[in-house]
Structures are given as C-alpha cells and as structure tokens.
Amino acid sequence: MVTAEEGRLAAAGVATYRIEAETVALCTAARALLALDEAHVAVDAFLDRIHPGDRATTRAVIDAAARGETPAPHVLRVRSEGSLRRVRHVAVADRGAVFGTLVDVGELLSEASDLDAMLSKWAEAFRVAGVGLAVAHGDDFALLDVNGAFVQKFRTSEEALANLPLEHLFTPDARDAALEALGRVDSSRHERFETEMVRADGDVFAALCDVTAATDADGVRHAYVTVLDIQEVKAREQQMRIFREVIDHLPIGVLLARLEAPGDAGTFRFVHVNEYARERSRDTLGDLVGHRIDEVVPDVAESELGRMYLAAVETREPQRVTAHPYGEGQVFDLRAAAVDEDLVAIIYDEVSEREHMIQELERLNTELGRSNSELQDFASVASHDLKAPLRSIIAFAGLLRDELGDALTEEASEQIGFIEASATRLRTLVTDLLDFARVGQRELRSEAVDLEALVGQVRQDLFDVIVAEGARVEAKVDEPLQGDGTMLRQLLQNLVSNAIKFRREDPPHVQITCAAERDHFVVTVEDNGIGVAEEHLAEVFDPFRRLHTDREYAGTGIGLAVCKRIVQRHGGRIWMTSRVGAGSCVTFTLPRAP
After folding, report:
1. Quick one: which of 116, 351, 382, 514 is 20 to 30 A from 12 by CA?
2. Number of other residues whose CB lies within 10 A of the CB of residue 444
3. What angle do CA 387, 388, 394 make, to 5 degrees?
4. Mind listing the pLDDT tens digit for each residue in 194-253?
5. Kind of pairing between the strands at 83-94 and 97-104
6. Distance separating alpha carbons of residues 502 and 540, to the nearest angstrom
7. What angle do CA 175, 177, 180 make, to 5 degrees?
C-alpha cells in the first residue's frame, strides 16, 4: 500500500503502456504519484486516477504515440489522497513500446508563481523609488528602462529617454571622464563617480553616478544605473543633521533600535541614542549605541517592554506603557513606534520627575493658600485695628477745632486740617488695601450677568458724583456676560469713578460697550477725560502707582490694580489706550461659558 507521505514526496515516474493488452506497468515513483498499489494495472484503472476532464486527452496522447507520432507534452490533473495534483505527461514510442513520463509540476508552478510575485514587487519598487534608476544595455549603455524619478530628474519623458546612449546625459566637459569610468565597468563590475549631467531644459547639475554591470544568459551586457543629485543629497544630509540635532536636544529620551532577528525582541540593536537618554543610561546601562538590547537588559525578550517593541514593528501601530525599565524608583512613560520595516523609535519621559514636580507644586499651592489666608486675616485685623485710632484722630481733631474756635490761629487751624486730611487719606488707604486683598481671596462665582442692569447699579452707587459733575454714563451690550456679578460691579464702579474723576472742563461722558466674540467677551469703558501719556500706560494698573498729586486728584492708586486683579481672577486680560487731552479707553476680556 502506498502511503500518503510517499505520495506527497513523489515527484516523477515512468509508465509503460501495453496497448494490445490494455495494461500499464508503473514504476514505484509513478505508483506513489497516482496513489496506486499494483505495479501493473488496467489502462482504465490508470485513467480512473486522472481527472475526468483530462482522460480523453491523455488516451489520445497515448494512442498517438503508439502510432509513431510525437504528441506534444500536456499537463493533466491527477487525483491523489483526496486532492488534485498537476502532472506533466509526455508519451513517446521506442522499439515498439510506449513510455510515458509523469512529473509533478504543482510545486514548480508554485515556485514560478512566487518568482513572478517577487519580480512584480521588484518592478514596483523600481518604479516608485525616490532615486533615479535606469537599466542600460549594449556597448553604448543605451537606456532600456527608466523609473519615474529618473524621468523627473532629467525633466523629460520615457519616450525621449528610450534607447538614448547614457553618454548623452553628461555635459560635454564631463563626457570624456564619464566614458572612461563607464569603460572600466566591464572589469570592475561596478563604478561610482561624481560628474556633471544635463537635463532636457539645459540645466546642469552635479551628480553621483553609480553603475553596476551584469551579463544575461545570451551574453548581452546590461548595466544598472543610479543617478543622485549631489545638491539634493547634501540637502537631505543637512536635514538629517538638523533632525538629529533636534532629537539630541529634546527634553525626553529618544532611542532608535533595529531588529536583527524577526520575532526576537532581544535582537534589537541600538543605532542612535539622544543626549537625554545617553545621560540617564550612562550610570545604569552604559553607552548603548552598537549594543543589542538583551546585552544591557538580559530578560527583555520575555518582558512587557520587549513585547511592546516587537508589536510596534509587527503591527506598525504605536505602543505605549508606563514602566520601571531600570528597576523601582524611576517611573517612565514609554512609547514605541515603527519608523521602518525593522527600525523602532523608543521614546520615553521620566514620569517620576514630573510627579515630584506636581507634588512640590501642590505643596507650594497649599502653602500659598495658607499664606494668603493668613494675609487675609492679617489685613482684616490690621484694618480694624488701624481704623479705630484713625477715627479717634479725626474725631479729636474736630473736637479741638470746635473747642478752641476763634482762639485758633490761622496756622494752627491749617495744621489741624492737615491732621484731618492725612488721617482721612490713611483710612481710605486701609479700606482700599483690604478690598485689594479680598479680591484675591473671595470665592469666584460664575453666573449670567446683565451688563446694562449692572451699569444701572453703578449709576446708583455713584449717583452723588454723577449729579455733581453732570456726567453721562451709557451702556450698549449684545448679550449677558459670564462672571461674578459682585466683582464685576466693583470693576465697573472703579473704572467709571476714574473716568469721572480725571475729567476735563467738558462734562464727563462715559460709554460702556460689550461685544461677544468666539470664545470671549470684549468690554470697553471709554471716556472724554484728560488722558494718559503713552509712556505711563504700562504702569497704570500697578498698585500705588499714581500719576498725579493729592492736590490735583485724590486717591490711593489702588483702584485700577483692583480692576486688574478682578479681570485676572476671571481668566481675562485688561489694558488701556489713551491720548493726552482726548480721553482714555480701558478694555478687558472675559471668557465665555463653554
């Protein structure tokens, strides 16, 4: 009995046809190929092993050979172990007998198919390669085939290059040296030389020409030509240098490793390590470049990191994991991405440093909150403790003026006035300082705020001043603002109060507008006052920064600083534009609700 394994291994066999007896004698290989047990079988039993569609052709070929004819070889299908095998059948007559050779061509056809697929891939690679490639033949290196990059490099067409001798692409001055180099190809089989080549439009460029010779089965010489524009090569080299320079100065680790044995993570060999990774690996792993990863991390092939690096190359998908590659203590955020078929980029950032920084920031924020709370308590206590004696100073100064009455000299009366004014100004300053401190501590509420209603409240707050100065305060808005209503009321009150205070002879006119933009509101408060010189615009929002004396305009220099703090608490910004003698415009932004 012929085994299945024998049948699979059989590649060729001989059959002897006895036409008058209608029998076939089969050699061992033929029996294995046909999966038959007997060495002699009837022709019908032989034909029964052949696919029904091929039986008639096979019998016709055998009969033709018996008549002394020379039938053409043919491929038939044979049933063997439940499957069909393709067999090449040749029948010939010799000394009155008919012999047939049976050769299993299925494997040969598979190999031919694989070869065709490989050649197809090479042809596609030739076509799409980014460098100029050409195939030349004959003594004059006539161009037989060129790829797209070659055509583009010479700014012409495939038709114009077809059968063109290679020497025509060199400049006249460079042609002799180029031909001399090409003449050496027969003996050296390979030549590389720098030369000058000319494009179809006459443009000359420096080129690196690489020529490799080969001879086919018919003895015809072929040459494979590569043309590189030296300026393009230098530009790419410059780009690579810049790229490496950038990588080397990144504040994260970047390593490039090439896989030498598919499926074995331990065979990744480091080809580049940036400065960050080099500095951090020197004490623990040493200089990595040139070493395989399993030389510095022995168990990497079975580790999570090894599997991640392999997955990046095999799936072409970026991979990410948080790990301790150098043991406990240091935590890294690691990413791996394939940059070539066998090259992986390993990028990592030390999370432990960032965690320490976050913890330190949290500690400092807690400390800052505690300090601010203490400052707030101090400001409240100081305000209360300072206001009481100030009230006493002002009250006793008034009593002194009332009791002495006409007995006071003009100079004494003036000095008591100084005491009252100074105490009053100090009391105002204490109140303003407390307001400034409270702005930074007060919890920020976010709510819809009707700006026109808010301006109406400000008019009520400043009613006496507005009436006394004959001022007009107008508002025009598009839609409600978003913010803390109490803080925004204080903000507008300070801005309107300033606009009225720093007036010219004309009655004060304050215009408030609000425009909604994509992600924020823009509010402007414009007046017709005395204006501010351009060199002072950057400092008007600083605490205690005053541009005028008390005799000119009363105040402490805190109002605009409070405005700035309120806007910053809301996540906006504030600025002023002005012209001396023509008025000022304060603009601030407030974020819109998401």
Report:
1. 116
2. 13
3. 85
4. 999 999 999 999 999 998 887 766 666 788 899 988 888 788 778 778 877 888 888 888
5. antiparallel
6. 13
7. 105
